[in-house]
Known about the structure:
D-Maltodextrin-Binding Protein, domain 2, 11 strands, 11-stranded mixed β-sheet, 2 domains, alpha/beta
Amino acid sequence: MKIRWMVLVMVLGLFLTACSSEPATLNVMVHDSFVISTDVVAEFENINKVKVNFILSGDAGSMLNKAILTKDAPISDILYGVDNTFLSRALSESIFEAYDSPLLKQIPDQFELDPGHQALPVDFGDVCINYDKSYFTDKGLTAPAFLEDLTNPEYKGLLVVENPATSSPGLAFLLATIAEYGPDGYLTYWQKLKDNGLVIVNDWNTAYYTNFSGSSGKGLQPMVVSYSGSPAAEVFFSDPKVDEAPTASLVGKNMCFRQIEFVGILKGSKNRALAEKFVDYMLSKRFQEDIPLNMFVFPANESAILPVEFTEFVQVSEQPAVLSADKISVNREQWMEAWRALMLN
């Protein structure tokens, strides 16, 4: 009997040891555009003996809605990808726990929009109008320098934009026009665009890969609302390889809207210590340097070294459109409804 008991204890001990060696799982909710290299994730997993599980949750708005609806029983430890157009809503819903990461010292103050450190900046990028350089050269046409130029007859029917109600870059461009013309003048501007043959589609994929001539060479519009990182992507993914980007960005005053993406630890996380480590890792040089050629946005950490595609082919707006997160939160739905009433009827 004694021997049996000893064997049972040994077997139980081995079982418990095996169970305890199983890595913990850290759940990270992300939008569908999130991409990071597997070796970068694996490095964090190996060092911390953890399995990182990314939960794809639609676009930024859909992801935030899911986090809010499940905040009493969170399905994730971390949320990444809420941007400055939705930041105020995330903070007002109190879905995050504050975390003052030591890596914030390497992030410029201009990106830290939440002084309570519930949402920490990870990356930024400009939503701009991209244009097909060869089209403008072939037609002897000068690219527009200001938003107002887009209403001129020589650009009639040449611009495709996304519906701001269904597209993040579409919303960003709408906000850029509000920053330029104000809440009392932006609809007048959009009426001018409409009168000048503006084309509206529902999503970025349709705008960029079907309508825009600079991506397929077959589209009818040589200008599209996209990202300042798009020219770098055109070079990086080119086959055969090209030495010059076939597209460029219009970066005049208020022609681009700067999006900043944030990460936060969700309230109710059962892995707080691991969550803090992963947030630190996302802000670290190792993770940050992997961002540009995966998501084609800029790292927030100023010590991160940029790839050559970004230093040579990406233009950064010196005067991007700026609206406070609070102002966007209060007025977003009203602005979009007024836009829909004008543009889609």
